[in-house]
TrEMBL record, chain A:
Residues 213-418, 510-700 form the ABC transmembrane type-1 domain. This is Iron ABC transporter permease. InterPro entries: MetI-like, MetI-like_sf. One of its GO terms (cellular component) is plasma membrane. Belongs to the binding-protein-dependent transport system permease family. It is a multi-pass membrane protein. It comes from Pseudotabrizicola alkalilacus. Keywords: Cell membrane, Membrane, Transmembrane, Transmembrane helix, Transport. One of its GO terms (biological process) is transmembrane transport. It holds the Pfam family BPD_transp_1. The chain crosses the membrane at residues 7-34, 54-72, 79-100, 120-140, 147-166, 217-239, 251-273, 293-320, 341-363, 400-417, 448-470, 510-536, 548-568, 574-593, 636-659, 679-704. Its main location: membrane. Coiled coil: none annotated.
UniProtKB/TrEMBL annotation, chain B:
One of its GO terms (biological process) is thiamine transport. InterPro entries: Ferric-bd. This is Extracellular solute-binding protein. GO terms for cellular component: outer membrane-bounded periplasmic space. Keywords: Signal. It comes from Pseudotabrizicola alkalilacus.
Length: 718, 342
């Protein structure tokens, strides 16, 4: 403890005395600040000596820490000292940041004082104080006395606190705002929360529209059920049958998540809309009436099924793979047939996967914005209502906040239901013991059911993507099918003259998008899997709340997150708007829950004895995590990386408010073109993105490789 | 500790990568992307000021500059309907640039005057109707010519309009009808039209696009968008309603608190110049420019050929009128229609 805390103390002091405390012009890595050390890029030490006296405050934390390291008589006293040192330093640092803003002060303190947003020095100091605190906590015997565990919990709690709770507080408080600026209260909140127009069940009785909340709930249940079953069918085909074209199928299952928003909706309209190809065909062949059925619940559901089945599949494939063959063999030895083995052995062991896939589908559907916007017709859901409460002709942030709270409470409900269903059972099947059986094949009925469900779906996906590809090469999709490269040259033109010039309209946003996604993906996976590790493997107080808080950012619609981020991070202490960093952060914390869910599902299968063996043999938690757990987590890591990379490229709603002139994203470019009716260039861009992402995913798969759970993953012959 | 250190380092790296502060003009543009890009490019060439440009819809821009008030990251907001620009001017989110508008057309000067110089009118978009000729023929319907025609029972389930609660286009239509027929008469008519409406879209430009693709038969929207659809090759005809029609005035505003006031003013001067506005033809911009010397497309709507109402922006742009009309729309119109696909 002494060594760790001492190390952090030194790092913190170095950050305090050497690094520029505030954000510097040109960015940290340009190192322009080295020459401006006496100017704006001064470290805190020089600032506090020269007029900004409040910057002495964080130093008090280090002073207390240093004193307890040197003076404490025993370990317990030292630990207590470190805890109070870290807490004091962090509290003072946060206080000065929240009181003295860019151009004013709060609470009437220190009037006239100003300061810019915190920079590298502040980051290092805050991290050092945090880890001094967590090291102290481990010294008190918490987290099995392991500084690594408490540090990790502390870091994740701090990050979630700053980048989820802090911004959300700005917008959720507005739900309780009284009309006319009369402060806060629940007198207006409760009637608006339970308003009939939001919860109305009128459509079920055939008398008009349902409320947006009920619509969202029905849609989310239908989508989550559908995607989980479909994902399971695909996962079973992959792991329990000898289906021949698995590779092709694998690509097809990934395609929809790497499709930029609006594109699936557009293709569905071209196929099933009133003037769509398939509609025209049935009208011609069978005389069916051409209707607008697509612009309703069913259209949105279909689009969501396409968009979110891959997520369910990615979660389930790892879990289904992990179910131990020896259990299945034992079952068969005991004279159970294949169906009984599946029904009573394999399926129950897949519960964590099913539950997590369902939860993700449910939340994704609730927060989905693009599909309801394009196909919703008069079917209103919460996410679109929230968007238009913020950007509509009459802006009503209070309504947006209330609807967001409704959305959150639906998520909370699903989360609790999932916990109840999983219960406290043990799902570990990867035990480290010799385990070289064959996975039981599916019985014929189930196998053919899986084929019947999944294969037409795969064919359907194939048709859709064929159409997208086709659409990018024709002049006016749906009307003028003259082949042309025009859309590609407009978007991705390159001129070779005195070197290479990227002249196409899309290059700029394309490069920005890829850079940001490439930075965000590994961070998201790291934070997500670290959280999963803590949740599955460690015991600490407030674990349930911790778990739910990591799901929050995912459940809140992107529009709300976007506005909340602008409100929270446009001013010091943390000033991030109009940078690329804010995009990276929003992606990391929005997509982290997928890493968490996938990680939890995969880790629940790894038997605890593996960790225990490693620790018994003298490894610490960090080494165990790195050498034992992580190698067994291949599919989960792959899923987290893939998903976060892809989502950083394809997400729209959160990004709309955060993209800036310097950091524009591909999706906001595409949405702009779609709004203007230029489908050709939008689809050409989408096609290029799809190919890029596919290449990236395949490369990731090659690098991470398959985990070897057993000597050979075999499936018994039919 | 290792993991936390790595993540701390990574965060630091990312933080540094993010902060850029080249001295240049940050423009948020609510026009068509191609027009945004072209204007930025021309401005850079003609004035030498570096421009960073991003395109967002007017509602999004308004929400963003509200959230950023006091420490704006945007210098100037160009394009999009005038109402949000007027709201921003009223909330002091924008600032008067002092640009001389005497050479501009009357409506542009009016807009500037009304906003206290904060929002300068740059273009006009006329409200109109559009129908898909193929679908109309297939269904054996007659073409609409007037606002009144939209209420004909034969159009049941064939009309698409946007929702005034989310779309400025639909609000302009609502306000136009109220100004043409008087409030009670207008709501009676809207309710009758509402019975024919198959969908109230969220976005104002969506109905036109749906009609172009044959997803609906008749749509209401802005004519310059419709000209664009027609030029792309869709089988559509544009109708200027016989009773007269309303219009929107697009504007340009300088954001209050911008550190680049000088460059922002230069931008405002630039976008109302004849030379800059004429360039719109290259990328298919068909609204009417504010500079009388700017050249226009022969197929673009012509203010002289269309019967225009004397649109009262001060009354119908005010939030009291707006909230009252929208509440009445919700009660009397929304409940009537849009229920055909279920």
């Amino acid at each position: 403890m002494q060594r760790t805390a001492g190390l952090w103390l030194l790092i913190g002091l170095a950050g305090y005395a050497l690094l520029p405390w505030y954000m510097v012009a040109g960015g940290f890595w340009s190192f322009g600040w080295l020459s401006a050390m006496g100017g704006d890029a001064r470290p805190a030490l020089l600032w506090s000596a020269g007029g900004r006296g409040w910057l002495w405050l964080p130093l008090t934390g280090f002073a207390v820490a240093g004193a307890s390291l040197m003076l404490a008589r025993d370990q317990l006293a030292m630990a207590r000292g470190l805890v109070s040192a870290g807490a004091l330093g962090l509290a003072l640092m946060a206080a000065q940041g929240l009181v003295i803003l860019g151009n004013s002060t709060r609470l009437g303190l220190l009037e006239g004082a100003t300061q810019p947003g915190m920079g590298a020095g502040a980051l290092v100091v805050a991290a050092a104080l945090l880890f001094v605190l967590t090291t102290g906590i481990s010294g008190l015997g918490r987290g099995r006395g392991d500084a690594f565990i408490t540090g990790m919990i502390g870091a994740i709690v701090a990050l979630v606190g700053i980048f989820v709770f802090y911004p959300m507080s700005f917008i959720l408080l507005r739900a309780f705002e009284l009309k006319g600026g009369a402060g806060l209260g629940v007198t207006e909140f409760l009637p608006r929360f339970f308003a009939g127009e939001i919860w109305s069940p009128a459509c079920l009785t055939g008398l008009g529209y349902c409320g947006a909340a009920l619509n969202s709930l029905m849609l989310a249940l239908a989508t989550a059920t559908g995607t989980t079953l479909m994902g399971l069918a695909f996962a079973l085909i992959f792991t329990r049958t000898n289906f021949r074209a698995k590779r092709l199928l694998r690509v097809l299952t990934i395609l929809p998540i790497i499709t930029p928003p609006f594109v699936i909706g557009l293709v569905l309209i071209l196929l099933f809309g009133r003037a769509g190809t398939i509609t025209e065909f049935f009208a011609y062949a069978f005389g069916w009436e051409k209707t607008r059925w697509l612009y309703s619940f069913w259209g949105v559901w279909l689009a969501q099924m396409l968009s979110f089945t891959p997520i369910a599949f990615l979660v389930l494939i790892g879990v289904v793979e992990g179910v131990s063959p020896s259990m299945e063999e034992a079952s068969q030895t005991l004279d159970a047939d294949r169906w009984q083995t599946f029904r009573f052995i394999s399926l129950p062991l897949m519960r964590p996967g099913l539950a997590n896939a369902f939860l993700l589908g449910f939340i994704e559907s609730l927060a989905d914005f693009g599909n309801p916007l394009v196909l919703g017709g008069n079917f209103n859901v919460l996410s679109t209502e929230i968007y238009f409460a913020i950007v509509g002709t009459v802006a009503d942030p209070a309504k947006a906040a209330i609807l967001s709270l409704i959305l959150l409470s639906l998520t909370l409900g699903a989360f609790l239901a999932q916990r109840k269903w999983l219960g406290r059972k043990n799902y570990a099947t990867v035990t480290g013991k010799g385990d070289s059986g064959r996975n039981a094949a599916l019985n014929d009925g189930l196998r053919w059911t899986c084929y019947a469900v999944a294969l037409p779906w795969a064919a359907f996906t194939l048709v859709l993507y064929g159409l997208i590809f086709f659409g990018s090469f024709v002049k006016l999709w749906g009307y003028d099918h003259t082949l042309t490269f025009e859309h590609y040259t407009r978007a991705f033109g390159i001129v070779y003259r005195n070197g290479i010039h990227f002249t196409g309209a899309a290059w700029n946003s394309y490069f920005t998008t890829l850079t940001i996604a490439a930075i965000a993906a590994p961070l998201t996976a790291a934070v997500g899997l670290a959280t999963a590790y803590l949740l599955v493997r460690q015991k600490f107080t407030g674990k349930d709340a911790f778990e739910f808080s990591t799901m929050l950012s995912f459940a809140i619609p992107g529009t709300v997150i976007g506005v909340a981020y602008v409100m929270a991070f446009n001013f010091p202490p943390i000033e991030l708007t109009a940078t690329g960093l804010i995009l990276i952060i929003v992606f990391v914390f929005r997509n982290m829950p997928v890493g968490v869910r996938g990680g939890i599902a995969a880790m629940s299968q790894l038997d605890k004895s593996l960790d225990e063996a490693s620790i018994t043999l003298g490894a610490n938690s960090a080494t165990t995590l790195r050498r034992v757990i992580l190698p067994l987590m291949g599919p989960a890591i792959l899923a987290a990386l893939t998903y976060s990379f892809v989502r950083a490229i394809t997400s729209v709603s959160a990004v709309i408010f955060l993209v800036s002139a310097r950091y524009n994203m591909a999706t906001s470019f595409i949405v702009g073109r779609v709004e203007n009716g230029e489908f050709g260039i939008a689809i050409a861009y989408a096609t290029v993105l799809i190919v890029t992402m596919l290449a990236a995913i395949l490369a990731l798969q090659l690098i991470i490789g398959r985990r070897k759970l057993r000597r050979a993953d075999r499936i018994e012959a039919h | 500790m290792k993991v936390s250190m790595i993540s701390a380092l990574a965060l630091g790296a990312a933080m540094a990568a993010g902060a850029a502060s080249a001295q240049s003009l940050n423009v948020v543009c609510s026009n068509e992307q191609a027009w945004c890009d072209l204007m930025a490019q021309n401005f850079k060439i003609d004035t030498g000021v570096d421009v960073a440009m991003v395109r967002k819809s007017t509602g999004e821009v308004l929400a963003q500059i509200r959230a950023e008030a006091g420490n704006p990251k945007i210098d100037v907001w160009w394009g999009g309907t005038g109402d949000p620009h007027l709201i921003a001017a009223n909330e002091d989110l924008t600032v008067a640039s002092g640009v001389d508008v005497t050479g501009q057309l009357g409506w542009s000067q009016n807009m500037t005057e009304m906003s206290g110089g904060k929002a300068v009118g740059v273009h006009v978009g006329l409200l109109g109707m559009l129908y898909n000729t193929e679908v109309l023929a297939e269904k054996g319907l007659t073409a609409p010519a007037c606002w009144k025609d939209l209420a004909k029972p034969e159009y049941k389930g064939e009309v698409t309009v946007s929702n005034p609660q989310s779309s400025g286009t639909a609000y302009t239509q609502l306000a136009t009808l109220v100004q043409l027929f008087g409030e009670d008469e207008a709501f009676k008519m809207l309710a009758e039209i509402g019975a024919n409406v198959n969908q109230n879209t969220k976005s104002g430009s969506a109905p036109g696009k749906m009609a172009a693709r044959g997803e609906t038969t008749i749509a209401v929207g802005f004519m310059h968008d419709m000209v664009n659809l027609k030029k792309q090759g869709f089988p559509v005809e544009i109708v200027s309603p016989c009773e007269g029609t309303g219009y929107e005035v697009g504007a340009v505003s300088v954001i209050n608190g911008t550190p680049n006031l000088e460059a922002a003013t230069k931008w405002v001067e630039y976008v109302i110049s004849a030379e800059a506005q004429s360039a719109g033809l290259e990328v298919g911009v068909f609204n009417i420019p504010s500079n009388p010397a700017a050249s226009t497309d022969p197929e673009a709507p012509d203010m002289a050929a269309v019967k225009l109402i004397d649109y009262d922006f001060a009354t119908y742009g005010s939030s009291e009128t707006r909230e009252r009309l929208l509440a009445r729309w919700e009660a009397e119109v929304k409940s009537k229609g849009g229920n055909f696909e279920e």
